Batch of 4 targets.
Target 1
Amino acid sequence: MKTGHPYPLGNAPELADMLAFLKRIGLTAAVGIVPADAVLPAMSVRGGAVVYDPARPGRVGDLLHEAGHLAVTDPALRDTLSQVGDDPAEEMAAIAWSYAAAMAIGVPIGTLFHPGYKGGPDYLIAAFAGGSFIGLPMLQYWRMAARDSEDGPRFPAMRTWLRPPCATA
């Protein structure tokens, strides 16, 4: 099986580690029915959870990206989220968050930024490998990751995996 290749999500070797990680940090991923018109073929966000169908083909790396949307959502809205928003800042933050999560779990970057990911993974793989972390400023703004001027571990290490209430500079 090629890394990141679309095959039934239930067969993805990284799935168990991803699910354990999400549970540990307080996010919910649940098996369920994914509508045929969902943006991603095997998963969606519903009721503040990532819902996935393990029998449908999909890319397991997308599970982390969708979880990233939940993680960076205002916590007052997180449990009611039934679709991913289109806020550009949250989209970039979800990309950075999913990278940090992948590194924490040990998921290969090619599984996260897979062929077909947002028009092609090459730019993102090169940017993150080179230390240009798209979306990191939002994670820092929300106090989820340390700023360069602060003590503590550097990104992709996170201070907190979930956006805290009233998180501002």
Target 2
Amino acid sequence: MATKAKKAAPKKAAAKKKAAAPKKKAAAKPKAKSARKPNAAFMRPLAIGAALQPVVGNKPLPRTQVVKKLWEYIKKNGLQDSKNRRMINADGNLKTVFGGKTQVSMFDMAKLVNKHLS
């Protein structure tokens, strides 16, 4: 039996790459650094609702501190789901905050907590 020889594909010339010329940086004018001011809406202390008080306390706190204390409570009590870390398992105190739900996404948690702040 005779075998047919395959034709080899013609080799393409490798494209020549030009080295990019290093760009010269223009002399930048030194800018005066201004202190970043936090948004006043985030820093305003809010009253804590009765359902949220066993978790974060009863003193008025900014929204950012409420979320921080809530996460401290979740980590301390091991309430973050072991398989899906985005889910929070509610204990007795958090179940009232979460509106009776036993498990809540961490993204929905902020929305549910806002109902208990004023």
Target 3
Amino acid sequence: MKTYIYEDNFVSLLTLINHLINLNIKPDDIKPINHEANLFSEDIFTNLKPDYNLVKSLANNNSVFKIMTNVYLSSDSKKELIIYYFYLNYLKYGDSILLRRNLKCVSKSLEISSYVSREAHKLKGFVRFKELANHVLYAKINPTNNVITILANHFKARLKNEYWILHDTKRGIISIYDKKNYYLIPEQNIKIDSNYNDDFYTDLWCTFYDTIGIKERKNDRCRLNFMPKKYWQNIIEMRNEIEKSSK
């Protein structure tokens, strides 16, 4: 079994996939360079130069490019192979690829892309920023998929006049915004002062949330559908619910 290795970024993955297709190679697997080695697999390093022109040309087809990007951001263990076969068929069928749901790679790509988009959309409403002592806004997230870039683009437009930090604690990635651009860096490269300025407003918001709730209309099952429990730990107003469930 041969596993082709790429630098852990989308451009390098597409460069490798395009290279394999040009050589008519169907890989057994494709994995990032930091993947957990398999004793029964031979890792093959190609050392290709990232092809940014390829990515720019693909980006012209917004629908196809978005689907491939979302699949890459997913937590699916076979996402690289899914993208490989999706791109292979895109080269064959062109724009009509999205209509060919009978192809497993297409139906799977659409399914994964939709899942990633839904999670990113939910988190746009679930992210809760706190103000640090240095007046920088800070929020933690722990999404199933790697959606921090989608959220960073959203908050770049939504909070364009604020300094903010978005911290994916699951992957150890931090996005920092300086009122112009955002940057992704490993969490070990920055030390964050966890002292907050907004304890008063946090308590005020929780009191407001608890007060407006109508006891007779409470529906826990419905709430879980819209606000899955896996996100509760970073949602300020759910702290009382977490304390109740832990007792």
Target 4
Amino acid sequence: MGGRLAAVAVAALVVLALAPAGAATITDRNTLERRTVDRINTVRRNHGLRPLRVVGALTEAADRHARSMARASYFRHELYTPSRSRDWMPFGTWIRWYWPGPSYRSWSAGENLAWGAPRITARQTVRRWMASPGHRANILQPRWRNVAVAAVHVENPRGYYGSWDDVTIVVAEFGRRSR
């Protein structure tokens, strides 16, 4: 047992030694996600609109996009897909991998993105979106019924976020579907 434990410890040290210096560390921001959904729904109620319901399919899409932007260090609605025939998938293509799901005859989806360094609050995120006509339109779209928000914090980012020691990325997916 002691030999096996020592081997595992040595293997872990080797992995750490081979890891690139300063690699980005990505952590979820679940509280920020919940608070951002709450802020979106508060704004909608204040404008006479029904609140949106969080659904799993959009949550998976939001999480995939937030993590992709964190790992590959970009900020755009396209999804980075280097293992496919094209490196970048347009929003209208990749969202179909998640939404609407099987057997829906009609659907639509929209997306809002935000980031802040080192952090961004739910209030700041929604305030920025409400100051942008396209993002505001998504929040106040009466047809939307569903929403999902994913938020990740990135320590030691590179590329697009490389000027900062750490950043927080927020993705909101909006949707409607009918059978």
